[in-house]
Write a structure and sequence with these properties.
The protein is α/β, with parallel strands linked by helices. About 30% of the residues lie in helices and about 15% in strands.
């Protein structure tokens, strides 16, 4: 159980009000994006999904989770399990906001009367939130989600240059290469060679666990108008730039971290860093380099026939989370006999569903997501 509070916002079905007899309804639990390092339950809010969910008679629940660093993927797995268990618990059903105990979910609940049907839960997420949805498929059994929706979800294949190879040229939506010296508070001494070890480690080790880091931007008068003012908005890009994201994700910094060993294995294979062709035997070799206690953080190592039906939606020009992540995961799931659909959105970048006019541009895709939900968690 988490040592800090995990907050969630609950949006009731459109036709369930405080005057109704208590109803049991399906629910969609949503996890936000932000590279696992920034954001909260209101960040990049998917209005299109919220509207289709509540209008269909489902509850829409947007949840926080702990952020890297100082937390790791292991903490996030626990948060995902706790959120799903809580929303189907008696504490949620009775709206008991005064339940004592560290780490219990603090639900911000309105005056409505419904409970969540544990047999009719879908889990959705965008970008890093898509990885949280994969965690639900891998690790949640009570309740077990009946459907997964991943919008350009990260982590479908962590054994690629995107996560492991250092970069010296812009790679992430054309944005500038970052100076690690501007982010020493968020860098383990392994990755901060220009700072003496002891002060850097003191800064990094002192980071408190958090589950809410709001988006913030500099004003238009700043020398780069609208540039992120919250440094956490940039550190996932920095970790990817340095090729060390997996070290922070797993929390495995000992002996130089996991990323270095995986990178050496990749580069030992001629041309591998320039191709998507990684065969099963080589994946087995790479997985052997990861301590077993971390295997549950890698969806590609956790694919099984037990995954629920899943839809992956991904833009073909995505440079923040390459479409290979979804293509690779979809292929593995299909090979296991999972009901999987991959919908590729031609020519689109990351977060395409937040573009101006997205409803007009992508409304048919959004409607198909709604039909997918109706098929797998029913109607209220």
């Amino acid at each position: 159980m988490s040592t800090i509070d995990i907050n969630l916002d609950v949006y009731p079905p459109a036709f369930v009000t405080g005057n109704d007899t208590k109803s049991t309804v399906p629910a969609v639990v949503y996890f936000h994006g932000g590279g696992l390092t920034v954001g909260n339950r209101g960040s990049w809010f998917p209005t299109w999904l919220h509207n289709r969910t509540t209008n269909a008679g489902y509850a829409f629940i947007s949840a926080d989770y702990q952020l890297l660093p100082s937390s790791t993927g292991h903490d996030i797995v626990q948060d995902v399990q706790d959120v799903l268990a809580f929303v189907t618990s008696q504490n949620f059903a009775s709206r008991s906001p005064d339940v004592d105990g560290p780490g219990l979910v603090d639900a911000l609940l309105e005056s409505f009367k419904f409970s969540v049907d544990p047999e009719s839960i879908a889990v959705a997420g965008s970008s890093a939130g898509g990885l949280c949805a994969y965690f639900a498929a891998m690790h949640c059994t009570s309740p077990k989600p009946k459907a997964i929706i991943s919008m350009y979800g990260m982590g479908g294949d962590f054994f690629t240059p995107h996560y492991l190879s250092p970069k010296t040229k812009p790679f992430f939506r054309g944005r500038e290469i970052l100076d690690p010296g501007d982010f020493t508070e968020y860098l383990h001494p392994n990755h901060d060679p220009d700072t003496s070890t002891d002060p850097a480690f003191r800064d990094f080790a002192a980071l408190p666990p958090i589950a809410d880091s709001a988006l913030a931007y500099h004003p238009q008068t700043y020398h780069i108008p609208g540039y992120p003012a919250n440094p956490r908005m940039l550190i996932t890009r920095l970790y990817l730039q340095l090729g060390v994201f997996i070290d922070y994700y797993t929390g495995a910094h000992e002996a130089g971290g996991i990323s270095s060993a995986l990178r050496q294995a990749l580069t030992s294979r001629s041309g591998l860093l320039n191709t998507d062709d990684i065969d099963a035997d080589f994946n087995a070799l790479l997985s052997a380099l990861i301590p077993e206690q971390h295997h549950g953080l890698f969806p590609q190592l956790g694919v099984s026939v037990d995954w629920p039906p899943i839809v992956l939606v991904h833009g073909t020009n995505d440079s923040a989370v390459p479409i290979w992540d979804s293509r690779s995961l979809a292929s593995r799931l299909k090979a296991r006999g999972v009901d999987v659909q991959l919908w590729e959105v031609e020519g689109r970048e990351h977060s395409f569903d937040y573009e101006p006019g997205a409803e007009e541009l992508f409304g048919d895709i959004f409607d198909r997501v709604g039909e997918f939900l109706k098929t797998h968690i029913g109607t209220a």
